[in-house]
Amino acid sequence: MIPKDTLALLTPPESEHRFYTDPDRAVERLEALHAEATRFLIDAFNRVACGERVSGRFRAYYPEIRMVTTRHDSVDSRLSFGHVSAPGVYATTVTRPDLFHHYLRQQIGLLMQNHSVPVSIGRSQTPIPLHFAMAGRGDIHLPENGELALSLRDLFDVPDLATTNDDIVNGEQLHSSDGALPLALFTAQRVDYSLARLAHYTATNPEHFQNYILFTNYQFYVDEFEAFARAQLADPESGYTAFVAPGDAVITDPDAPIPPLPRLPQMPTYHLKSERGAGITLVNIGVGPSNAKTATDHIAVLRPHAWVMVGHCAGLRNSQALGDFVLAHAYLREDNVLDADLPVWVPIPALAEIQIALQEAVAQVTQLEGYALKRIMRTGTVATIDNRNWELRDQSGPVQRLSQSRAIALDMESATIAANGFRFRVPYGTLLCVSDKPLHGELKLPGMASGFYKTQVARHLQIGIRAMELLRDMPVEKIHSRKLRSFTETAFL
After folding, report:
1. What is the pLDDT of residues 145-161, one digit of tens each?
2. CATH code linked to domain 203-483
3. Full 3-state SS string of the chain
4. Does the predicted model carry a pTM greater than 0.70?
5. What is the domain partition of the chain in residue ranges?
């Protein structure tokens, strides 16, 4: 093993920070810097893998965006993003500017518009781990330790979990090491980490994710989503351009087969694509708050415009019937998985824009309104727990809490998805369908469940899709509510 401090540090050529007043040119510079850095690392790895004599330690850096403002600028107070709250130096590291091209162009453009200052683009002081530079490249495979004559750690930077965290999101990091305030919620390392995790958990490339995300907890919804997608591809006026299944199977022909995978990933994900990410992604997260947290932890770095849970729940009121809908306007959090990041005393507010879209979607799909609509849809508190078989324990404690909270439904994912939406500033909502009533002797049994699924899943999914289409028609600045922003907030969404 060669001590790291005995090796010369080999880096791409130095490049000065440049100032830009055109967001398109700024993003082009980010793309050029990131491409140069990753190409340098990949070329170095290939030389080492081929046995070339090592003459130094290889390092390349993420590009960064930096902005300085000296004024308390007056901006449109209705806008929840696109501006900073006080004079200062602001910066963020950037990864995959090719993937985030439109997002970066929009965010940088708003900064320039609201503060009348240029942004500086250049090389940061944050190294790019070799693993992240090579992620997603099917023609390159990192060898296991021992296959190379030297350890990768001796020659390249590797992921460092100490600097890959949610400190900015959680409000625990206000300044970087050089004193700059954060421009974005996620650092480049945190984004790269999640992009790699997304590809692993969903078996689809992050570039396929759309800006409107539906989460579900049953395979039945996937089957209906594929059928809907094929119908949309057959309609040239639909605006949808492709359907993507796990394994990055892309079809544009409504009758094209989808090659089956030998085994599905942990969270099978399907994308009905439209221009500039305006389509809909469906993620089957399965059952449980841990999966719900994992999925949203990583999807959040893509900065979607909305995510909504459309799954099944236990109805807690005797007046409810199987197949009724529950529109959550509050959450009882007993899932426990986010307690360290978002204390349970933090309220999770309902977002008017999402609530209205969901209610309107129910009305449009069911063709009901007024009192008739109220008969099949209840608005109230949804309780989320981490014990699927809670009914087998002493019910006095849980039932009392459910009653005191005025809960009308119980599941294992919704509060987690909503709480992480609140934490990550992603607009969220929940529309559930009652599939059983355990407190009233109506358990989810095989025969009863099959009839329920046949009649209700298609309609429920249609409602979720319609709600997303309604949200897509809203201006972005209207969807991203000020309720999701803190006192001292990052400028970027």
Report:
1. 445 556 788 899 998 88
2. 3.40.50.1580
3. CCCHHHCEEECCCCCCCEEECCHHHHHHHHHHHHHHHHHHHHHHHHHHHCCCCCCEEECCEEEEEEEEECCCCCCCCCCCCCCCCCCEEEEEECCCCCCCHHHHHHHHHHHHHHHCCCEEEEEEEEECCHHHHHCCCCCCCCCCCCCCCCCHHHHCCCCCHHHCCCCCCCCCCCCCCCCCEECCCCCHHHHHHHHHHHHHHHCCCHHHCCCEEEEECCHHHHHHHHHHHHHHHCCCCCCEEEEEECCCEEECCCCCCCCCCCCCCCCCEEEEEEHHHCCEEEEECCCCHHHHHHHHHHHHHHCCCEEEECCEEEECCCCCCCCCEEEEEEEEEECCCCCCCCCCCCCCCCCHHHHHHHHHHHHHHHCCCHHHHHHHEEEEEEEEECCCCHHHCCCHHHHHHHHHCCEEEEECCHHHHHHHHHHHCCCEEEEEEEEEEHHHCECCCHHHHHHHHHHHHHHHHHHHHHHHHHHHCCCHHHHCCHHHCCCCCCCCC
4. yes
5. 4-197, 203-483
